[in-house]
Amino acid sequence: MTLVPLPSGGGVAVPEVVLITGISGSGKSVALHALEDAGYYCVDNLPPELLESLIQLELGEYSDRLAIAVDVRSAKSLPHLLPVMQRLRASGVRIQSIFLDASTDTLLRRFSETRRRHPLSDEHVGEGDARPALLDAIGLERELLSEIREASSVIDTSHLRAAQLRSWIKASVNAPASSLTLVFESFAFKHGVPLDADYVFDVRMLPNPYYIRELRPQTGRDADVARYLEAQPEVGEMLVQIEAFLRRWLPAFEQDQRSYLTVAIGCTGGQHRSVYLVEQLARRFGVDAPPLVRHRELDARDPL
């Protein structure tokens, strides 16, 4: 099926489609519910070959904001997904693909806690009647979804609460449309490196406000911590060098048709240094299009 090209005249709403994909157990249901609350018409587990038909049906009839979950349950149809996305964009549909991921240890724990079966638990691996264990099923799923992951904005849900994931999803779909959206994320190395990071900068060697009693309970967003870090020459030098590196290579990412670039800044606790640097980088790069800002450890403890 071919979509009718959208009219280019003023006053015509450009349809928005959010495609939620990802690894089973990574939070796709939570994400879809968040988009439903935000006013999107949501469909779960839609076979990719029906995507164009659904959009053609919905445009101008029910909603021009659609959220559709596609996952490995439609494994035989997954090769059709990327060509379908390309045709939709060529026809004028604004389509955003978000891929949810999580560490294998996290997925194993979640499946154990919920006692749910993995969608690929009945797939045959190799010859004979051997069925994969959960670990093998997760590995097979990662392989099947690898190309979709490369073409999507990735969110690592390993350390996210449900409320935190809902907040990040809503922020992602509300981000201004641009050729390349920058994502700056702070994190704590003691809780692991984010799986969604394209670049990771380690700032644990910088002076740590944690060791100053008055600054310990504060964060990198507080003025006292910012003044302390601004007074440290190493912090300013690190900030300048990260900015210079990104400005040198951002044009190359844009030419490569990338939609998102996630830059993760890590310190020991994800509270002071990494938070400060993320906030400063967001200000410096936010002149033309505001970047997305995520503070993994701070957002996890803030009430949402």
Describe the secondary structure blueprint for this structure.
Blueprint: E1 16-22, H1 28-37, E2 41-43, H2 51-58, E3 65-69, H3 81-90, E4 94-101, H4 104-114, H5 134-144, H6 146-150, E5 153-156, H7 162-173, E6 181-188, E7 199-202, H8 223-230, H9 233-255, E8 260-267, H10 273-285, E9 292-295, H11 296-301
Parallel strand pairs: 1-3, 1-4, 2-3, 4-5, 6-8, 6-9, 7-8
Helix pairs in contact: 1-7
Give your account of this protein's structure:
The protein has 304 residues and is of the alpha/beta class. It has two domains: 1-6 and 13-174, P-loop containing nucleotide triphosphate hydrolases (Rossmann fold); 180-304, no CATH class. Helix content is 38%, strand content 17%. It is built from eleven helices and nine strands. It has helices at residues 28-37, 51-58, 81-90, 104-114, 134-144, 146-150, 162-173, 223-230, 233-255, 273-285, 296-301, and strands spanning 16-22, 41-43, 65-69, 94-101, 153-156, 181-188, 199-202, 260-267, 292-295. It has a five-stranded parallel sheet, with helices on both faces. It has a four-stranded parallel sheet with strand order 7-8-6-9, with helices on both faces. α1 packs across α7. The chain starts with 15 loop residues before the first strand and ends with a helix.
Helix content: 25-40%
Overall number of structural domains: 2
Pairing-aware structural class of the strands and helices?
A: alpha/beta
SS strand fraction: 15-25%
CATH class of the largest domain: Alpha Beta
The first-to-last residue Cα distance is 42 Å
| CATH fold annotation of the largest domain | Rossmann fold
